[in-house]
Write a structure and sequence with these properties.
With 217 residues, the protein is mostly helical. Helix content is 53%, strand content 2%. The protein has nine helices and two strands, in the order αααααααααββ. β1 and β2 form a beta hairpin. α7 packs antiparallel against α8.
């Protein structure tokens, strides 16, 4: 089951994200990325990555629905994308991969309420999620910071393209966008299975079709 992150764990994960951001060679992308992380640090520390209205039923499709979950997810996606990018590093832009992976879900800082352990809905959704979703909000945040940097229009929109397409809401036109989107899906799906191994219920036998290693005695 999900475990809330301690303050120390949050600080360590945030530092790891900063370390990845510092690997970005392009100064404009690097500065924008680090500035966003620092300005949104407090929000990142109190947001979940997913929302869960029926946690007690153990069958909710969600991921990292815990205090600090958004920070955890962003770091996992960054690690995934970075390692995939290294395989194709002669043919892809690692700066764009790192930038897009680190910030792909930054828009969630504006759609989820602060984590409330006593709430039946662990991470409440507000109207902005229903109307525009985190992808649009994330693009807006990132573009605001990129506009403060000396950056070409082409590079700016390449970076925004990765944020815009990570949820398959529009066609991808860059290998970097595929890598970030795939890294995102892998973490969300794996975390969902690890934390909710009982999602798959046999409707006939009314028993679980999967047991995690932690269930084996």
């Amino acid at each position: 089951m999900f475990n809330n992150l301690s303050k120390e764990e949050k600080e360590n994960k945030f530092r790891e994200l900063i370390n990845f951001a510092e690997k970005i060679q392009n100064s404009s992308l690097r500065n924008a990325c680090i500035n966003i992380l620092r300005d949104y640090k407090k929000k990142l520390f109190v947001k979940a990555a997913g929302h869960d209205a029926i946690e007690n039923m153990k069958c909710s499709r969600t991921h990292q629905c815990f205090d600090g979950g958004l920070l955890d997810h962003m770091l996992n996606v960054t690690k995934n994308a970075y390692n995939i990018g290294l395989i194709y590093n002669k043919n892809v832009d690692m700066d764009l991969i790192l930038f897009g992976a680190i910030l792909h879900d930054i828009g969630k800082t504006k759609i989820f309420d602060e984590w409330n352990e006593n709430s039946d809905i662990k991470s409440n959704l507000n109207y902005s999620y229903l109307l525009v979703d985190h992808v649009y909000l994330g693009e807006s945040i990132v573009e605001e910071y990129l506009n403060k940097e000396e950056i070409s229009e082409k590079l700016k929109y390449q970076a925004l393209h990765i944020i815009a397409t990570h949820m398959d809401t529009m066609d991808k036109h860059m290998a970097e966008a595929y890598i970030v989107s795939y890294a995102d899906s892998v973490d969300a799906d794996v975390e969902n299975i690890i934390s909710y191994p009982r999602n798959a219920i046999n409707p006939i036998l009314k028993s679980y079709m999967y047991e995690s290693v932690n269930d084996i005695k």
